[in-house]
Amino acid sequence: MKYTLAIHGAPYASQSAQHGLALAQALLAQEHTIERVFFFHEGVYQALSTRVVPQGEEDLLSKWQELGQHGVELAVCIAGGIKRGVISEEERQRYEKQSSSLAEHFTLVGLGQLISAINETDRYIEFPA
């Protein structure tokens, strides 16, 4: 089966990322396909490259990036990302900011990408904050 996941919660502020990540890993282990993981609302902070993991905490960013290395698209809502300071190099130049903050393997996309993924997959699962 093909899945699309949506993560709404900020890292360490809710369990949505941990639950979404665990499901994604389990689905891939069972040879299902994940079309896209869409980070929405506060979930865009999952893609923030400048975040420092507190000692003893799980490094969620690196675990998401591992999924990205295995072909899972990690899509960040562009409107939510820019509003919260999660910007790509292209957006950094566009808005004349000093640095980009979008982590490797993540891309900024429009909401249409989420709708497209929902239409192309068998299951859509949200992890609210």
Describe, in plain words, how this protein is organized in 3D.
The longest helix has 14 residues, at about 15-30. The chain contains 5 helices and 5 strands. The radius of gyration is 14 Å and the shape is globular. It has a single domain (about 1-125), classed as DsrEFH-like (Hypothetical Protein Ychn, Chain: A, 3-Layer(aba) Sandwich). With about 130 residues, it is α/β, with parallel strands linked by helices. The mean pLDDT is about 95. Helix 1 (about 15-30) runs parallel beside helix 2. The protein has helices spanning about 15-30, 60-70, 80-85, 90-95, 110-120; strands at about 1-5, 35-40, 75, 105-110, 125. Strands 4-3-2-1-5 form a 5-stranded parallel beta sheet, sandwiched between helices. Helix 1 links the parallel strand 1 (about 1-5) and strand 2 (about 35-40).
Feature tags:
129 residues; alpha/beta
What is the element string, with H for helices and E for strands? EHEHEHHEHE
How many discrete domains?
1
Low-confidence stretches: none
How would you characterize the largest beta sheet?
5 strands, parallel
Specify the CATH homologous superfamily. Answer: DsrEFH-like
Radius of gyration over C-alpha positions, nearest whole angstrom: 14 Å
